Amino acid sequence: MKYRFITLLRHNWEVILLFCLFGFFLARNPFSLRTLIPNIEPYPDSIHYISPALNFLHGNGFFVAREGRKMLPGVPPLYSVALLIGYFFNSDPRVFYCVNIFLAFLSAGLFQLLLKKIFSEQRSLRFLLFFLYVTNFLLYWYPEVAMAENLILPEALLTIYLLLFKPKKSIAIVISMLSISFYATKFASLPLSVIVPVLFVLHVFFLKRKTEIIQIITVFVLSFAFWGGMYIAYEFFVRSNNLLNGLFHLFFSIITKETKPNRISKDEVYVVYFSLEYAKKNIVLYTRWLLGDTLSVLWKTVRILPSFLAIPAFLGLITSFFTKKRWSAFIWVSILITTILFMMTFYTADGRYFILAVPGLIVSLGFFLSF
Question: Which H or E run contains 73?
């Protein structure tokens, strides 16, 4: 046992060192008043995530409730479900940070597996890329806020990791679950729920045996329909929300050119959150962010990477299509472009809806350096 531990340490000392560094950056006392964690930011989104989990454990149903009043949460359920793990041991609302730390380490572990899969023979490069990951401000700051992106990140990294393997039935089932889980975690992750099934089906068609293609596609479609139907049923019967009708109205609002708030009544104003009219401004902001400029992430103004690293990373996405890593590059390009195309129609550009750009740009830098 001791020999195995020493062998593990000898062959993975740099990874362990970087995990320790990541832990150092994440080291916060959520119960201390010297941090912003007790503020439970950003309000009111955080309340819609935390309150249902706490009320569920207290036997008050999966609601946002206080002093005998209750309302349905205005956000999808999966992040609240994840918070149940922490609140099962301690019902203090600030425990969300402990759950987020677990999710952050899970994301880091999945990112390390991704690096080993993509850059299997380049240990020094993996060390550099993982160093950039664990020292990225966004990735060790984001656990301080009670937001679903903390769960979206490991879900997405696991999905991308599975897409790098040869398709089979078991992977088809997991990918279908993850595809639905994106939207069931955060509505703004709709692009992932769309592009991931497309990528998987496309990958399956590269298989040589026709019977194998038919079997895997059948399993995937049935599994996707099952989990999708389960979530649609939850939205309809639990939250009284017609999901399909909501998606139709979302599409309609995107293609409309109306962006000014409309007063429905004296006390009610309809705000146009999605429209193509916002795209011209936002696509410039997101593109500049990918190239090393700053962008708002909640109340912070940050960059993913400095320009001298971001620009080569951007070029790496292009050059990688001329290497054996073209499938990996195609996955990242598809996810990033789909997300940008959707979020550029939102009324404001905010990096929190595009957090996957952080590991995406770091991997792209690896493509450039390994070209």
Answer: none
* Distance in angstroms (rounded) separating the CA atoms of residues 339 and 361: 14
* Chain segment 354-370, per-residue pLDDT in tens: 899 999 999 999 999 98
* Average pLDDT of span 84-96: 92
Say whether pTM exceeds 0.90: yes
Q: What angle do CA 193, 109, 188 make, to 5 degrees?
A: 25
Distance CA 142, CA 99 (A): 12
Strands (E), the chain: 64-66, 69-71, 262-263, 269-270, 295-297, 300-302
DSSP per-residue string spanning 31-69: T-TTSSGGG-PSTTHHHHHHHHHHHHHTTS-SSEEETTE
Q: Which has the higher per-residue pLDDT, 323 or 269?
A: 323
Q: How many CB atoms lie within 10 A of CB 23?
A: 15
159: Cβ–Cβ under 8 A, 6 or more apart, which residues?
175, 178, 179, 192, 196
Q: What is the pLDDT of residues 147-204, one digit of tens each?
A: 999 999 999 999 999 999 999 999 999 999 999 999 999 988 999 999 999 999 999 9
